[in-house]
User: Which sequence fits this backbone?
């Protein structure tokens, strides 16, 4: 039994600035799931104001509106992703998914055996 | 022109605790390069005490001595990696190297095209 597990955190930079990251994309995923910026912010333990700031920052970094808000109605309004926002989130998820597989493979090929050898020592 | 670059940070956990990480392995690499814990700590802007604590923590996590110190002599003593320490650092470097390639490939396959499409939009 080994018990060691490899992990990776991903992000995308441009000119040395973080433009997308697991954390930022998580916020968009939660908006998509809950249709509510307040609920998404709450889940991530961010203030509404700070969550909104993160979304605006992402939109500025990518030069595209990623969320759209509907005011009022029976449910009291909602925030959802734009089609571009969904596309970007899906592309990022595919990137994450592929990397998860790669991390496991690279670990099994390179580091796992060395750590297991220690265990046996 | 795109300008987006993907990045990843790696670490290994056991029972929810970080046992190895890019940061911790960097400290071992610097010890190997400089043969000095003080120099390695300085480069990483850590106190000597804190750097020593990190090394001891790593040794405890892996159940192996990773560094050895020689006291005195013309150079005033030195700290180097044990053979096991070198082996682990090399295995971790191979893990990192393989992942670096995988990150670039996954980005080019999954996320890069979506971000480039935004640019063109």
Assistant:
């Amino acid at each position: 039994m080994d018990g060691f597990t490899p992990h990776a955190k991903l992000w995308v930079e441009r000119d040395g600035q973080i433009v997308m990251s697991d954390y930022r994309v998580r916020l968009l995923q939660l908006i998509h799931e809950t249709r509510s910026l307040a609920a998404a912010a709450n889940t991530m333990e961010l203030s509404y104001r700070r969550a909104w700031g993160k979304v605006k920052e992402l939109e500025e970094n990518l030069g595209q509106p990623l969320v759209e808000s509907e005011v009022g109605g029976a449910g009291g309004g909602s925030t959802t992703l734009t089609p571009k926002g969904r596309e970007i989130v899906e592309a990022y998820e595919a990137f994450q998914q592929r990397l998860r597989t790669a991390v496991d493979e690279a670990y099994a090929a390179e580091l796992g055996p060395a750590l297991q050898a220690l265990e046996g020592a």
Q: What stands out?
A: The radius of gyration of chain A is 19 Å.
